[in-house]
Amino acid sequence: MAAAAAALSNGSGGDSKAEFAEIYSRLKEEMLEDPAFEFTDESLQWIDRMLDYNVLGGKCNRGLSVIDSYKTLKGVDVLRKEETFLACTLGWCIEWLQAYFLVLDDIMDNSQTRRGQPCWFRVPQVGLIAVNDGIILRNHISRILQRHFRGKPYYVDLIDLFNEVTISSDMYIHTKHIFCFLQLPEALISMSRLNSRQLQGSCWILSLLTREKRISQNIT
């Protein structure tokens, strides 16, 4: 939990950030102990480090907005424990998705730094192993959703929404790099379009959770 707490130590919203950091530690531990993955000691240490390096480090505004927005939609200042956990879990799924985009986009852009430190693929001994790490990040989202939302009436909708946001953003990134490769004027296309896709994804998830009265009143 120390790494997550340190990454979220700046700014306001201390209580929400502390809860958010605590949930990250739990989700990471679940991924490291997932029986679907046969880790050696070396690969376990690698994934542990990779998650902290890439999922943490940003402001986590996308993930934290899920908690704050859900409180606003419910008209309450404090969520029940189960509601807080599920809202934080969805928020971290968005942060995992953002990490997936950034790891792969940095490779394609041949970038040097990300969030004040070397891009993951530029870390010694990582290199193009980062491609597979990006895929692992995306697959973790499915595992997290399956573990914590499989019994919910909106589980399939969540899977569809994350897939929709992923393919929309992936296709935009593809188009951006094709334009750059061909040296077309469209290479100057604004990144705000990609950001709007990700923000739209967050809004879709929030609207899904409050679509029906029984869900807006009780996320469980």
What can you tell me about this protein's structure?
This protein is globular. It has 9 helices and 2 strands, in the order αααααββαααα. β1 and β2 (117-118) form a beta hairpin. A two-stranded antiparallel sheet has the order 1-2. α2 crosses α5, α5 packs antiparallel against α8 (192-209) and α7 (155-182) packs antiparallel against α8 (192-209). Mean pLDDT is 80; it is low at 210-220. The protein is an all-alpha fold. The longest helix has 29 residues, at 81-109. Belongs to the FPP/GGPP synthase family. Its cofactor is Mg(2+).
Task: Please give a quick description of this structure.
By secondary structure, the protein is mainly α.
Give short descriptive properties of this protein.
single chain, 9 helices, disordered C terminus, 220 residues, two-stranded antiparallel ribbon, mainly alpha, globular
What sort of overall outline do the alpha carbons produce when their principal axes are compared? globular
Fraction of residues in helix: over 70%
What is the strand content? under 5%
Main pleated sheet? 2 strands, antiparallel
Helix-strand sequence: HHHHHEEHHHH
Annotation field: number of helices: 9
Q: Which structural class do you get from the secondary structure elements?
A: mainly alpha
> What number is the mean pLDDT?
80
Poorly predicted ranges: 210-220
Query: Which strands sit side by side, in order, in the main sheet?
Result: 1-2
Tally of extended strands?
A: 2
Distance between the termini: 25 Å
Oligomer: single chain
From the alpha carbons, calculate the radius of gyration and give it in angstroms.
18 Å
GO molecular function, one term: dimethylallyltranstransferase activity
GO biological process, one term: farnesyl diphosphate biosynthetic process
Organism: Triticum urartu (Red wild einkorn)
InterPro entries: FPS1-like, Isoprenoid_synthase_dom_sf, Polyprenyl_synt, Polyprenyl_synt_CS
